[in-house]
Amino acid sequence: MKRVAILISGGGSNMVRLAESMTGDHPARAVIVGSNDPAAGGLTKARDLGVDTFAVDHRPFGRDRAAFEAELIRNLDAARPDIIALAGFMRILTPDFVRHYSGRMLNIHPSLLPKYPGLHTHARAIEAGDAEAGASVHEVTADLDAGPILGQARVSILPDDDPASLAARVLIQEHRLYPAVLKRFAAGDRTRLDL
Ligand code: GRF
Fold first, then answer.
1. Mutate to test the pocket of ligand 1, among 7, 20, 174 (most ligand atoms within 8 A of CB)
2. Do 134 and 77 reside in the same domain of the chain?
3. From edge to edge, which strands make up the β-sheet containing 105-109?
4. What is the domain-level CATH number for residue 94?
5. Which of 81, 131, 159, 181 is deepest in the core (most CB within 10 A)?
6. Picking from 80-89, 115-124, 142-151, which range would have the lowest pLDDT averaged per residue?
């Protein structure tokens, strides 16, 4: 049974779907949910799901990313995770952190990578006049939002879409995609899933 740690920064809607998906004959279980924000709403949701939680507030660490990440790793490794799932985690991770979890860390990003790494993805897709938007689940490497893609889900961009309406439709697809990709990944299957 693979042990999965999930990192969040906010509401944790993806975390909830992931945790809820890991039941029955699923090869993994959520064992810990962590956040860089002690007030993250997702921490309460995780506890309601019976999953242990921790928070390491990144603000007292200032620019000392290494010290913040050392505390993050201490909390994570206490739960002996086999897989780390970043789900709405909004801190950029150093190559050292990525190396520590090399080959076993996933992230969901709200764009059809390699298009639109970084922030404001939906506004950029609308601005560019794209016909489609979506979400990508990828392995995390040292380059931001650039690791091997394990799955994508696509939505049409509608003429009257604004970033909020598009984000809401993409989020629905994220909630389908991430659990499906994690289940494969936990079973050792890295074949790409396109929904
Ligand atoms: C989602 O759009 C996700 O793609 C991005 O963070 C946003 C919020 O996710 N990574 P959640 O509701 O906190 O899971």
1. 174
2. no
3. 53-55, 28-35, 2-8, 83-86, 105-109, 132-139, 149-156, 193-194
4. 3.40.50.170
5. 181
6. 142-151
